[in-house]
Amino acid sequence: MTGVKPNYLANLKKDIPSGLVVFFVALPLCLGISLASGAPLLSGLVTGIVAGVLVSWLSGSELAVSGPAAGLTVIVLNGIETLGTFEAFLLAVVIAGFIQLVLGFLKAGVIGLYFPSSVIKGMLAAIGLILILKQIPHFLGADEDFFGEMEFFQANGRNTFSEIGHAFSSIEVGALLIGIISLAILLLWDNPKIKNNKILSLVPGALVAVVLSIAINAFFASFMPELAVASSHLVSIPIINGFSDLSTELQFLDLEAITNPSVYIVAFTIAIVASLETLLSIEAIDKLDPHKRRSNTNRELKAQGVGNMVAGLVGGLPMTAVIVRGSTNVAAGAQTRVSSFVHGSFLALSVFLLASLMNQIPLSALAAVLLVVGFKLTKPSLYRSQLKLGSEQFIPFIVTVVAIMFTDLLIGICVGLAVGVFYILKANYKSPYFFHKEEHREREIIRIRLSEHVSFLNKASIVLTLDHMPENSHVIIDGENSAFIDYDVLEAIQEFKKTAHERNIQVELVNIKDVEVMDLH
To answer: Which of 30, 45, 114, 372 is the most exposed place for a label (fewest CB within 10 A)?
Structure first.
């Protein structure tokens, strides 16, 4: 990571509160993803703890937060089904971690730099919209699907929009009241008067909202039981009373599955998808970082590899850097990796000491936190600024938003990337050379002066230009100003020179290297 090494102690007053906020968001997400993946409930928390306590210090990013990812739920579900047992799947997670470690040493992290800015911004905006749409049913107290579900088509047969329609027909008034109060507190805490108050600024709004939500629900249960939030709309953590309970809940890998070829297919799938999701998340978090630090993506791949190896060994799900947690971290004011470590530490405490207290938190209060995070990611001003940049930026951006909303993160990114690449090719088509034409009595002289860097992306433009050279002309192709000319372009130029005489075109090459042209005659 580039930039001055941060002072971790000096930033504790911001990192500890933001770590608490991320913890409140990550806790139900870890549990929900475990449920959706068909894995033991504790496995998601195990991964969240490993990611926070260990990977935060190995990470190439100061602000990224890792953990079990909603984008991997289908892969985990299918992997467990394919391999027959969760224990065999854990072996695949360890192997996937090793593959990621190797990718880090091979410097594969550079892949993240090839994603256009418009696509990354589209991903952030889409995540924001999905967060808002997915949290509305929880905010209304009407959704019993897992908290943190991100897919458009849901397991219960509904989709994102029909779920909202259903939610409005079965509102739980107590949960809605708690959600509204929590949202009001979060908005109040964003007020400059609160932010500038030396005492209040130390307490995160999310913490105030969550603590108050527990108190309000306790009040409802005692005095207005008809408004008390149902247990299905509260956080649900398994109660661990000691290491004997923990050993019963945890499951460990099955080494006998090492001879099963399917294990390696599942491992490779996890490694590739998790690495891509991580690199995308890291690139997005770098854009949100107020200090604009550039993360070391190769170090991040190594960190994720180590994290997945450890998680697999202790019974956890595979992990990635997760944009929801990372963006929540930035929005909460985090400055360094200490925030992620704090979130992991509180996840560990929640398993051993705070389970009964955590199980009193209404999901509508947590939904309010994510509604605010979602809005910050998909503000109307973002759409306006992208529109002002022109169609080359806005179309890949909006296509990415729509594609992610109606498919999933990786498919949506691929669709947006394809559109972005089209505009990159179009832009490169326009600018590989300077074209100058001179009229002479004997024959027309055309000078093509190549630009400083001529890549294979410029080949199509140059070939089309050469194909349309007029007959009986004198063409000068000048590479004097070029620091680099791609081999494909050199080959195309030599092919033009070889056949130009057929149209009575005289070709003169200046500082253009000779390359062999395939000839079957």
So the answer is: 114
| H-run or E-run covering 476 | strand 474-478
* Average pLDDT value for the chain: 86
Count Cβ atoms below 10 Å from residue 363 Cβ, excluding itself. Answer: 27
- Block residue for tokens 């490779």: 268
Q: Can you give the C-alpha Rg of the chain in angstroms?
A: 28
Token duo for residue 108: 């594969």
- CA-to-CA dists, residue 199 to 196, 204, 477, angstroms: 9, 11, 70
Nearest residue to 13 via CA among 235, 339, 247, 327: 339
pTM of the predicted protein model: 0.75
- The percentage of the chain sitting over the pLDDT mark of 70, rounded to a whole number, equals 92
Collapsed DSSP state (helix, strand, coil) of residue 434 = strand
363-377 and 205-223 helices, crossing angle to 10°? 150
Beta strand ranges found along 223-361 (DSSP E) = 319-321
> What number is the average pLDDT over the span 105-121?
84
As a whole number of angstroms, the distance between CA 398 and CA 387 comes to 9
Rounded CA separation 261/258 (Å) = 8
C-beta neighbour count of 382 within 10 angstroms? 18
Residues of CATH 3.30.750.24 domain(s) within the chain? 433-510
Where does 433-510 sit in CATH, by number?
A: 3.30.750.24
